[in-house]
Amino acid sequence: MGMPRAERPLENGPLREFAAGMRQLRIDAGSPPYRELAVRAGYSPSVLSDAANGRKLPTLAVTLAYVTACRGDIAEWEARWRALTEPVVVEDGPCPYVGLSAFQADDAELFFGRERLVDQVLELLRNRRFVGVFGASGAGKSSLLRAGVAAAGVWNALVVTPGARPFEELAARLSTSVEELAEHPSNLALVLRQQGVELLVVDQFEELFTLCPDEDRATFVAALMHPALRVLIGVRADFYGHCGQFPTLVAALDGGQVLVGPMTADELRRAIIRPAAVADCVVEEALVTRLVADVGNQVGALPLLSHALRETWHRRQGISLTLGAYEKTGGLQHALAQSAEQTFNALTPSQQVRARQLFLRLVALGDGTEDTRRRVPAAELDPAMPLAELVAARLVTQDRHGVEITHEALIRHWPRLAGWLADDRDGLRVHRQLTQAAEVWVSLDRDDEALYVGNRLARAQEWADDNDTALSVREADFLRASQSLDRATTAAARRGARRLRALAIALAVLFVLSTGTAALAVQAVLARQTTESQRDAAVVDSVALKIPGLENSGNPSLAGKVALALQMLAPRTNPGVLANALVRRELLTGATTGAGFSQSAKRLVTTNADGTIQVWDLTGHEPTLIASRQESVPPVSVTLSPAGDRLVTAFPDGKVRVSPLAGDGTDTAWLSDTAFPAAPSQVAGEQMQLWQVKMSGPPVAILARPGTGPIATSADGQVLAFADGEGKIQVPGRHPMVIDAQLNHVQAVGVADNGDVYVRTATGLSSWHTDPKLLHDTACRGGPISESQWQQYFPGLDYRSPC
């Protein structure tokens, strides 16, 4: 007879205790070999060995045969066996598996399997202030951050998700105002420190890129970069590249990243067995083996595993989670779909329609990434939606911020939802844009400027006609307001067209009556029948001749508007005519000898023959004088620094002075011929000196030599312009432009921010190129040309104000 076979140690739990009792029974019987017990019991040695190994509960017949062979108490062991198999009442305690939900800090005692990763993240946070946790959807990032790191007690942690308005979420959690947090990047760190928060955990960081507006996203990232903050972020792996949009975020994550991969087999066993042990239950070894095999190396399978275990828990036998119960759930791949289908099919037909609308709202369509869940505020929901039923089934989660899908696994593993999303993705994008537009409209106090017009309104209305029940109250109000505005605008346009037609007919009748001849009437009719282009050309040619008179009529603003309209009707018109009308009023008439713009073109500096230098603000309806200075020697040229806060003045002796506006001269800087020389450049056959002047903005290159005419520079120092002694305007790198045969006819030279050169002579102003936006803004500063003014200069042409 051989020695009894050594048996493996048992883990804790009721099933293990039952198996341990059977082993002890064999020991008390003298530890007979299983071959000898088999003869006594009538079962094979392997069956008896399996009965005592603690992997699964043996049948009652095998149990009693084993006890009989070991001479144990049959009645006692039958009672013990039945105690393990009797149904457990619902009130025996909460389920130890969270299903699709993430483990929270309160669930820390049930969170197993990620101990190694938790220690890795904690160690990184001890040595650096910013750490990022990356992983696929379903890899367990949220549970790691919440039930692992935040619940570890190393730091007082605050866990948030960004949502569409990250500062609103933080303000609600910190009992402060959104304005206080967002006003300055350092405010968030200050408020957190005041409230004792040592670690800010930002879970689902990808919501910054799927839900958050660009401006709020940039402001929030800037606040997280404050050196006084210790920050931990959780990011879905397919949004890793999006983080590269922010150089500061890239630098903060350098060396501080943790990748969450699939669990090992041992980690999975702990995640499966230990939560059940906390609840005084056991997981059949055959089920553990099956689950480990089903999960394998799938990165995003943890929510499916937790959901399947939760469904198995509800089907358990006594205190045992069995393989048979697991298979009834549909298994790892089908348990979630089966639960969702059962919940959906239990709804009434009208509830099913509303449930479909709700789920489509809860998904943010991916753009180069997988679809993600979207948190929907309560104001966007229809009260008729079956929210209570879906929350009870744990398919959606509701809190004070709104509603969201419990986990994105539902998007990928519920075929019905996947089908809804695939039916009309373009329509869903139209709906999502409508939702966002309606939200902006409400935030702007229902301003008409935020309403839909044109093609956007047509597309939204077409979608709404097919999905009218899917609209929220806010969206329906937005569409109605957009339609009302569109009808009013159309009606106004029609009234204007009718007035123009009536006026044209009246003029034609008056014309016919005044001539008293049918021949002239026929000529008028024929003239009206000429092509639109010929008519426009005739009107343009006529108006172009009136521009000089308009400039001197005491209404230069109207001259600019008419010239801009002229350019719109006939782009072939000489741009010099337009530039003359628009910029002449900005350079001011009179004895102006020099002028220059600030970088933003919001300020203008001029100098007169008597040495007076004046700085004008151009942002109002008319130029406003904001600074003045008198020089004893009239300067050759003046210009402004990029910020418009310093003057650059060139004098006849070749010296250039940089001085602050309204300064007293004590901090002026004089540049002599030996100061800061750069490489000389050959211009117009002579050696010229180039100077670099450091101001509040980019360096400004100043060219100066005795006898040079007016000069000017661009704000970035890349363009120089000056008048030479031959009546030409020279710009290094360009062909010279002949303005006048006499140098003294060149009154001023200016270089706009885009490099366009403006030249003022005694006969007007011309340019090589004209910046359309600058000219448009200049002409339209006083408002658009009125319809009556339009008809005065462009009779018969449809009113189309360029402003």
Outline the fold blueprint.
Blueprint: H1 14-28, H2 34-41, H3 45-51, H4 60-69, H5 74-85, H6 115-127, E1 130-135, H7 141-149, E2 157-160, H8 166-174, H9 178-182, H10 187-194, E3 199-202, H11 207-210, H12 214-224, E4 231-236, H13 247-253, E5 257-260, H14 265-278, E6 282-283, H15 285-295, H16 302-314, E7 320-321, H17 323-328, H18 331-345, H19 349-361, E8 363-364, E9 372-373, H20 387-392, E10 396-399, E11 402-405, H21 409-413, H22 415-423, H23 425-443, H24 454-466, H25 473-515, H26 518-528, H27 532-544, H28 547-551, H29 556-569, H30 575-587, E12 592-597, E13 603-608, E14 612-617, E15 624-630, E16 637-640, E17 646-650, E18 656-660, E19 669-671, E20 681-683, E21 686-688, E22 690-693, E23 700-703, E24 711-713, E25 720-723, E26 728-730, E27 737-738, E28 746-751, E29 757-761, E30 764-767, H31 772-779, H32 787-793
Parallel strand pairs: 1-4, 1-5, 2-3, 3-4, 6-7
Antiparallel strand pairs: 8-9, 10-11, 12-13, 13-14, 14-15, 16-17, 17-18, 18-19, 20-21, 22-23, 24-25, 25-26, 26-27, 28-29, 29-30
Helix pairs in contact: 2-3, 2-4, 4-5, 6-7, 14-15, 16-18, 23-24, 23-25, 24-25, 25-26, 27-29, 29-30, 29-31
